[in-house]
Amino acid sequence: MTADLPFRSGRSIASLLTAFAACFLVMGTITSVRLHTCLKVMCFALAITCVATIVALQEPNLSSMIFRGSDRARGFFKNPNQFGMAISTLAPVVLGYALTSRGRRTVWVCCYLLLMAGLILSGSKMNILLTAATTGAMIVLIAYALNSGSRRVAMLSLGILCYLLFIFVGTFMLSVFNPRALLILNNFFASSEVQSLQSRAALWELSIQQFVANPVFGQGAGQPQSFFEGGHQITHSHNIFLDLIRTQGLPGLTGFLVFATVTIVLSLGAVRLAVFSKDANKQVRVETLGLAIGAMAYLLANI
Q: Which residues contact 273 (CB under 8 A, 6 or more apart)?
């Protein structure tokens, strides 16, 4: 109530209540059949968004909606990073179906390729790196979990070769369709001299100063940052830990760390079950792998 913009604090409270309501709704209504149907709808809807993004490269009206005069696509999301985040979350699920669905493998392979095209056009660097990592993890884990003996060794070797090819082709496509994103990634890994990181260093320092000024209660949930760059206000700290201690103090950070730790532990436990539960249904095991890895990717992308 003492925040500069109390309405924004109330919005955060409503979001948390909605999150718990959605959680209980899913727990009370979901079945394996409904889950499979829901996943298919989400994956294909996202693939259609990627189709629209590709068409926008040549269609001016659609381009003004999706690219908005920049070299980064946002699909039908608020910004390119959210578009990339949706893709990096569902990409492990789609890849799992593409590798294991015999009857509709071509459909799922096409769906995965569309998602990769959308990701490249989004230019979301963090989500590109996350998808590269989760793709390798899914290939290795599926090859290990669904095979045994000499066949497991052969499939692991084949999977690693395919993954290296995936990285090579992905880098090439990025250089063609979003060279600026590739240049930023190269500069980051070569010298860390990236302009956006330099400006964020100042943003992070300001966030720490604001936390020190009020370490217990913070500025209030959802309060915007008072940082300006190039005439535009950057409203958040561009780091969830700093944003939490700035807005909600140490109690907010502690609560989030508990939530994040539980999420990671449960996801890793789900991965372990999916890999070693050899008597379980193959589709369920693959879905579990994709959802667990996608959940961790979503958490990391938000951080």
A: 288
Residues 59-70 as b/e (b if ≥16 CB within 10 A, e otherwise) read eeeebeebbeee
pTM across the whole model: 0.86
Between CA 142 and CA 179 the distance in angstroms is: 32
Q: Flag whether pLDDT at 157 surpasses 90.
A: yes
In whole angstroms, how large is the CA radius of gyration of the chain? Answer: 21
State both tokens at 239.
């780091």
Note the pLDDT of residue 154. Answer: 95
Average the pLDDT over 61-83 and give the result: 92
Task: State which H helix or E strand residue 15 sits in.
Answer: helix 6-29
DSSP H/E element including 228: strand 227-229
Q: Is 218:248 a contact under the CB 8 Å cutoff?
A: yes
Look up tokens 């830990």; give the residue.
241
Angle between helix 125-145 and helix 282-302 axes, rounded to 10 deg: 160
Residue pair 127/87 in contact by the 8 Å Cβ criterion: yes
Sign of the alpha-carbon torsion through 209, 214, 217, 220: negative
Task: Quick: pLDDT tens for 253-263.
Answer: 898 899 899 99
Q: What is the DSSP string of 133-163?
A: HHHHHHHHHHHHHT--HHHHHHHHHHHHHHH
Distances in whole angstroms, Cα of residue 68 to Cα of each of 57, 63, 77, 210:
12, 7, 12, 34
